Amino acid sequence: MIELLDLEGIGPVRAEALRAMGINSLRDLLYTLPVRYEDHSTITPCNTKTPGMILVCGAFREDLKASYFHGISRVQGTIYDSSGKLPVCWYNEPWISKQIEPNQTVRLYGQLSIKNGRRILQNPKISMETGWIPVYKSFQHFPAKSFRKLVAEALDHLEDCCPETIPHAFRIQNRLCELNFAIRQAHYPSSMENLGIARRRLAYEQILIYLLYVSSIGKKRHTSHAFQITDEQIDTFWSSLPFHPTKAQEKVLLEISTDMRKPVSMARLVQGDVGSGKTAVAFGAIYLAVSAGFQVAMMAPTEILAAQHFDAARKILEPLGVRCRLLTGSTKKKERQSILNEMQDGTCHALFGTHALISQDVIYHQLGLVITDEQHRFGVRQRNLLHEKGVTSDHISPHVLVLSATPIPRTLALILFGDLDISIIDELPAGRIPVKTRIVPENKRDGLYDFLRKQAEKGRQAYIVCPAVEESENSGNLRNAKTMYEDLKNGALSDLKIAITWGGQKSDEKKQVLQDFNDGKYDILIATTVIEVGINNPNATIMIIENAERFGLSQLHQLRGRVGRGVEESWCFLLSELTEKTQVLCSTNDGFLISQKDLELRGPGDLTGIRQSGDVFGNLLFGGDAKLIEEVSKAVQELYNSLEQKQILHELSEYALACFSKSGRSISLN
After folding, report:
1. Edge-to-edge strand order for the sheet containing 436-440?
2. Are residues 398 and 507 in the same domain?
3. Do 210 and 621 touch, CB atoms closer than 8 A?
4. Which range of residues forms the domain containing residue 460?
5. Are residues 389 and 466 in the same domain?
6. Which residues neighbour 244 within 8 Å (Cβ) at sequence distance 6 or greater?
7. Does 157 reside within a domain?
């Protein structure tokens, strides 16, 4: 079979460059799809007034004029066709003036810009091709044209290196085109309709094999300790709390306890909306594990969230006999050593902290349960290291519990966490008042500040969240926290006490600001998204989000969740124009509905966490694929439930295992 080195223009240097990009074969090369396409088939008349990428065909009646200004070259001219004329300009391409002769018919492809009513075609390239031209991600040692030529040559050997991967019957049943057709059309589409058919087939396959892989891995649970847990212990925990649990909380803790009673390692994801009580359920699991004679480690992504869990645990768990400690990067040396000693001799039962929990010198006496909170913020390696801390010399693994405060549509959760059992807390505690959300246009800002001032007079507090920390070249019209702090402190809200915090602030300073805000020393806290998780101030009833259009729906929902934690009516104000995104937030407080809409609007993207696993989906998934994920999930369930399709399931599962055999350890499994 032909190899990469057999292709024209591939020597040792370029072969190494391809390997560095993960391209080790012709098949890898052909699965490296374009990031976009240029339409070199549709000619736009020169008199067009619609900005964007266009292809024009015409001639220059005069020589192109070249000039220089401060070392920058500029070539100008006007191209004419039967419809009229269009000014053209090239920057830093002085040679172009010698390439195009007067009255020579030429096709130019470039960006048409319109500013102050003046049209200009900027830095167009001479087009010698027709049809839809693929544009690939730029690679070192490969100019765009060279890489395109390389792919075109590889396509001549498509049938040899890319045999069909999906059984015929399954392909027909699920309306999937042949693989060879899909790959050819994905690189050189004959129409946008065929490109859609091709992308659907390739995206479907990637989702399918990923889901089948994690499903098969999920069935291979490790041996674990079977905890001795009684129903009375569960009742003891719930009755010790100062509130009554919801039925959803009781159901989920029962599912967890059932898992931990088994001699196989629990692997369970607990999802819940903002304020649904996931932490209380996690504390219940901690109490049951410690009652069974084991230690627990609970890892959070930030010191703020870890400290919040620790403070809550001391109030809830220590009265039940669970000794808790907190370990973070800020822990003093003497205290750290004391904690390490207690963990090793078993006198500490539950250790809360950040990634400090996986430090090499942290040795556990008998770690039986590991919990990761806000799991999507951890790398795969960090989560695996915490799990491995509890693996004994005779290969007994700890139970694993994963908490997600970002609601994920169930069909997407099946893709991301196919190896995990999923529990959903779909009920909010009684008495929780839904946060009212309103869009505030810029011309209503003064009225908003008046409302904020009146609420402060009643003793209420507010957050103002900005998308940037400070002004920069790329910030444009974005509100930034530091400028807003100075403006409000010395201007519109100078009569109120205002504080500021951001991600890069010194740790001790940040802690003090948040503590003072919680203690009521400030009326307003101006911040970045550093307050998105781990902040709990029941007295804060107003959330103002600047440039709300710049945030994702799920992130806006998380920020809104910082208020509405007490008994008073709470508000979330979005400083933004009315858009589909902001309208969704105003219409519902259901985090699962919001995340589904977020997925539809933005595509999986970083929401899925897949990018950290080696970009399994490549650039195949995009905004409209939320429905495709659901479609593939249903097809897989049918495969597992159908005796007639047992052979097809076997073939596809073998293919999935082969695809991930080398990269499986890096995939997001827990």
Report:
1. 436-440, 571-575, 540-546, 461-465, 524-527, 498-501
2. no
3. no
4. 436-588
5. no
6. 238, 430
7. yes
45-59: pLDDT as tens digits: 999 998 889 999 999
Structure confidence at residue 648 (pLDDT): 93
**What are the tokens at 133?**
């031209």
- Of the candidates 207, 193, 206, 156, the one whose C-alpha atom is nearest the C-alpha of residue 31 is 206
pLDDT of residue 594: 80
In our burial notation (b when 16+ CB lie closer than 10 A, e otherwise), range 256-289 reads bbebbeeeebbbbbbbbbbbbbbbbbbbbbbbbb
Chain segment 51-101, per-residue pLDDT in tens: 889 999 999 999 999 998 888 899 999 999 999 999 999 999 999 989 999
Residue 540 pLDDT > 80: yes
Q: Judge if 562 and 540 occupy the same domain.
A: yes
State whether 491 and 538 are in the same domain.
yes
- Whether 623 shows a pLDDT value over 60: the answer reads no
Looking at the structure, do residues 283 and 389 belong to the same domain, yes or no? yes
d(CA 517, CA 311): 17
Beta-bridge mates of residue 545: 465, 574
Give pLDDT tens digits for 109-157.
999 998 778 999 999 999 998 889 998 887 777 778 888 888 999 999 9
Which residue, 130, 110, 129, 131, is CA-closest to 121?
110
Q: Are residues 339 and 394 in the same domain?
A: yes
Say what the pTM is: 0.63
Q: Same domain, yes or no, for 385 and 444? A: no
Main-chain phi, psi angles of 74, to 5 degrees: -140, 130
Q: How far apart are CA 483 and CA 469, in angstroms?
A: 9
- CB-side neighbour CA atoms (13 Å) of 468: 15
